[in-house]
Design goal:
The complex is a heterodimer of chains A (205) and B (170). Chain A has helices at residues 2-28, 79-94, 115-123, 136-145, 188-200, and strands at residues 36-37, 48-51, 56-58, 66-72, 101-107, 129-133, 150-152, 163-166, 169-172, 178-182. Chain A is of the alpha+beta class. Chain B is mainly β. Chain B has one helix at residues 2-22, and strands at 28-36, 44-52, 58-64, 68-78, 83-88, 92-94, 99-102, 107-114, 123-130, 135-143. In chain B, strand 4 (68-78) and strand 5 form a beta hairpin. Classes of the chains: A alpha+beta (205), B mainly beta (170).
């Protein structure tokens, strides 16, 4: 009898839980994206590095933002600046929505890429770009976490060297969940389209 | 005697003309020459399209500039696995009546150790060296770090249509 009297409140509680679960699902629900969907195939965003202001930075600092993770290095004259220049155009095309997005440029050359070098570098491309550097171990851990790779090439004889690295961009939603992978063959249009979807979903409340 | 001198003179003249014909740089036209300027003294990428108007093939073998103490001809290759790698290139052929492009994510000049800060809007003279030793001076326009061509995919692939068009240098 007691149970019967309580039934309405139990039902209400179930309903509330259901609605909450549904809204939580909405954020990670499959969207009609055009890039490679990596939802559930790659781990959530997680790292402990140093940002381009020299301050400790972790994934929690970017909660509520859609993030674009890209590995590169500042002594890279061709593909890194090209990729960052295109990401800048993509951010411009997103308009005010881009305020909720961040480009995370992680150095695979921490020996040369100090926070100061990174700061000047990322700001030459986009105000929403963040430079991240750190210990060789922490960077390697992050690279491995996303099954990416990099190799330091032999010294060219004058103390300069190149670093071969993966060219993919990993895109995470506002909850830090891995969602999409962009490769060099993907057009700006696809990135703009999919970032629109992610940014329109679950805006920070 | 006079005839022989004349013959020698003609021969010398013909040889001189021949030398001019062999001068690869004279048959090359350069267009879309630009440099992507990066902050500090970081190495910059130099890009240019070379047109060969002659019947003879030519080959770019290197470049130099008063503005950068180190200039190297490089190629970026991106493998199927998505790894991007830079390699040094000894020569880049410019086919007869053809053209070759040094463009982002492909062939480029790596410009290191600037002698003075290069700013966007500056013009930088580069001397392009060809396989026969001839030299072509070209003015490169310095553009900002985040400059992109309008017809590029995010990685610089020409996006002529909706579908990505593979670039032959890859």
């Amino acid at each position: 009898m007691k149970l019967l009297r309580r039934l309405p409140s139990i039902l209400l509680a179930l309903l509330v839980v259901g609605v909450l679960a549904l809204s939580a699902c909405q954020r990670s629900a499959s969207l009609p994206t055009q890039l490679t969907d990596i939802s559930g195939h790659m781990p959530d965003l997680a790292f402990k590095l140093t940002d381009d202001h020299g301050k400790p930075a972790s994934a929690a600092d970017f909660h509520g933002k859609v993030t674009l993770l890209y590995f590169g290095y500042t002594h890279c004259p061709d593909v890194c600046p090209l990729t960052l220049a295109h990401l800048h155009v993509i951010m411009q095309r997103l308009g005010p929505l881009a305020n909720d997005a961040r480009i995370l440029f992680v150095s695979v050359d921490p020996a040369r890429d100090t926070p100061a070098v990174m700061h000047e570098y990322v700001n030459a491309f986009d105000p929403r770009a963040v430079g991240l550097t750190g210990s060789a171990q922490d960077i390697e851990a992050l690279v491995k976490r996303y099954r990416s790779a990099f190799t330091r090439e032999p010294d060219r004889g004058n103390g300069n060297y190149d670093v071969s690295h993966s060219s993919a961009i990993y895109i995470f939603d506002r909850d830090g969940k891995a969602r999409l992978l962009a490769t060099p063959d993907d057009s700006q249009d696809k990135l703009v389209h999919d970032l629109h979807l992610l940014l329109d979903t679950g805006a920070a409340s | 005697m006079k005839h022989r001198q004349l013959a020698l003179l003609l021969l010398a003249g013909w040889l001189a003309v021949g030398t001019v014909h062999a001068n690869q740089a004279e048959h090359i036209r350069a267009s879309k020459a630009w440099i992507r300027v990066l902050p500090s003294a970081l190495p910059a990428g130099g890009y240019v399209t070379l047109h060969n108007d002659s019947d003879q093939p030519a080959a770019l073998s290197g470049a130099s500039s008063a503005a950068y103490s180190d200039v190297m001809l490089h190629k970026t290759s991106t493998q199927a696995a998505g790894m991007s790698q830079m390699t040094m290139v000894d020569r880049l052929d410019v086919p007869a009546h053809g053209e070759v492009s040094l463009a982002p994510a492909g062939y480029h000049l790596m410009l290191s150790d600037p002698s003075h800060p290069v700013k966007a809007g500056d013009t930088v003279k580069l001397s392009l060296k060809f396989a026969d030793g001839s030299v072509l001076d070209v003015d490169f326009l310095a553009r900002p770090a985040n400059a992109v061509g309008a017809d590029e995919g995010y990685f610089g692939h020409t996006m002529g249509h909706a579908a990505p068009v593979p670039v032959s240098s890859h």
